[in-house]
């Protein structure tokens, strides 16, 4: 794989060579870095995730580190979610919005210290956004990308594997909390988070020279528990209604359209970019709304690679943003953004799938485990 790819402008993660040894056969690009997307059959990857455990290279989740005396105030400026009660050691799912209330990213925020935050990014250049804002903010902050590369250990056996690696104390780590630890002298931050809606952990490596060592150490500990190398599962994330930036949202999408009003605190005594616009949207209401669809066609052989039009009574009312076949549900399931007036559960619509009309039905989402009881379950 020495000559793989597009040149030095696309970075390789500290785990790149290990993933190739363990069977990665295809990659995509995310945050200017390669991410493994092919370890064989994606349905088998899904079953490995939900039945045992998988280890995923997600070093593409680059960190924006915010430090300095005004770090908390500046981090709040970036997001409409009220962080005033966020404790040291806590993680929160947040949105980053622009002046119009559009979504620029949906990272996990981690608070490592009183004046020390990470934003674990989806696929957009928030480092540049944050550095630009800092210049004109008048606040005393430092914004940089640290040497931090996360792995995701996800699945029902992930707790047992973490116990093998870190001992019984790690089982006390609560959902959406973090801990600074070492493993054989390897510096890590461990959080009980992940992009799977399964029980899982993220391990943030703080020394990129030790990526290969960390990968092999985890795989060895996980072998008795059925751990497999894998990649983030499109099937599982759509089942869970989890959003993918650039697919399900972009700078023209606002939180209320996605049903994420709980992450927008316009009434709180906090300052953030987009506050006036989001207050206006909340008052006036939305014209688009995200819904779930069951597409009643032959089994999809992979996710959609373009946005499919959604039609009602001959009129285009929106688009399918993410679609896949769920082997567990035995259905083609999708997320769609459509006209709010047509977002009526159980209504029938037509999807222009590869320029061919197929019937679909509007349903609620998430499609599976809507209360996220799996991810939040107590680890035995």
TrEMBL record:
<dbReference type="InterPro" id="IPR027266">
    <property type="entry name" value="TrmE/GcvT-like"/>
</dbReference>
<dbReference type="GO" id="GO:0008168">
    <property type="term" value="F:methyltransferase activity"/>
</dbReference>
<feature type="domain" description="GCVT N-terminal">
    <location>
        <begin position="17"/>
        <end position="266"/>
    </location>
</feature>
<keyword id="KW-0808">Transferase</keyword>
<dbReference type="InterPro" id="IPR028896">
    <property type="entry name" value="GcvT/YgfZ/DmdA"/>
</dbReference>
<protein>
    <submittedName>
        <fullName>Aminomethyltransferase</fullName>
    </submittedName>
</protein>
<dbReference type="InterPro" id="IPR029043">
    <property type="entry name" value="GcvT/YgfZ_C"/>
</dbReference>
<feature type="binding site">
    <location>
        <position position="202"/>
    </location>
    <ligand>
        <name>substrate</name>
    </ligand>
</feature>
<dbReference type="GO" id="GO:0032259">
    <property type="term" value="P:methylation"/>
</dbReference>
<dbReference type="InterPro" id="IPR013977">
    <property type="entry name" value="GcvT_C"/>
</dbReference>
<dbReference type="Pfam" id="PF01571">
    <property type="entry name" value="GCV_T"/>
</dbReference>
<feature type="domain" description="Aminomethyltransferase C-terminal">
    <location>
        <begin position="288"/>
        <end position="369"/>
    </location>
</feature>
<dbReference type="InterPro" id="IPR006222">
    <property type="entry name" value="GCVT_N"/>
</dbReference>
<dbReference type="Pfam" id="PF08669">
    <property type="entry name" value="GCV_T_C"/>
</dbReference>
<keyword id="KW-0489">Methyltransferase</keyword>
């Amino acid at each position: 794989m020495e000559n793989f790819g597009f040149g030095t402008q696309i970075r390789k993660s500290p785990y790149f060579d290990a993933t190739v040894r363990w069977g990665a056969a295809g990659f995509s690009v995310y945050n200017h870095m390669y991410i493994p997307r092919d370890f064989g059959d994606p349905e088998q990857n899904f079953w490995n995730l939900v039945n045992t455990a998988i280890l995923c290279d997600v070093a593409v989740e680059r960190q924006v580190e915010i430090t300095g005396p005004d770090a908390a105030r500046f981090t709040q400026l970036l997001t409409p979610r009220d962080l005033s009660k966020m404790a040291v050691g806590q993680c929160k799912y947040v949105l980053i919005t622009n002046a119009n209330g559009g979504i620029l990213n949906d990272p996990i925020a981690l608070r490592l210290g009183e004046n020390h935050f990470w934003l674990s990014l989806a696929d957009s250049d928030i480092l540049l956004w944050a550095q630009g804002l800092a210049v004109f903010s008048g606040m005393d902050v430092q914004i940089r990308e640290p040497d931090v590369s996360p792995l995701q250990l996800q699945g029902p056996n992930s707790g047992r594997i973490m116990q093998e690696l870190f001992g019984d104390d790690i089982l006390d780590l609560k959902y959406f909390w973090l801990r600074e630890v070492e493993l054989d002298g390897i510096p890590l931050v461990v959080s009980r988070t992940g992009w799977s809606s399964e029980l899982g952990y993220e391990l943030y490596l703080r020394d990129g020279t030790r990526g290969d060592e960390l990968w092999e150490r985890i795989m060895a500990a996980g072998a008795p528990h059925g751990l497999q190398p894998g990649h983030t599962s499109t099937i599982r994330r759509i089942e869970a209604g989890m959003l993918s930036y650039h697919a399900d949202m972009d700078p023209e999408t606002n939180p209320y359209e996605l049903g994420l009003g709980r992450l927008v605190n316009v009434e709180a005594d906090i300052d953030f970019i987009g506050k006036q616009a989001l207050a206006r949207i909340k008052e006036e209401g939305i014209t688009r709304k995200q819904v779930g669809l069951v597409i009643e066609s032959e089994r999809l052989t992979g996710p959609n690679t373009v946005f499919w039009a959604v039609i009602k009574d001959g009129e285009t009312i929106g688009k399918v943003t993410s679609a896949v076949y769920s082997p567990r549900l035995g259905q083609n399931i999708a997320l769609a953004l459509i006209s709010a007036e047509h977002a009526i559960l159980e209504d029938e619509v037509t999807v222009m799938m590869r320029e061919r009309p197929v019937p679909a039905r509007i349903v609620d989402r998430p499609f599976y485990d809507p209360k996220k009881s799996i991810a939040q379950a107590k680890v035995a």
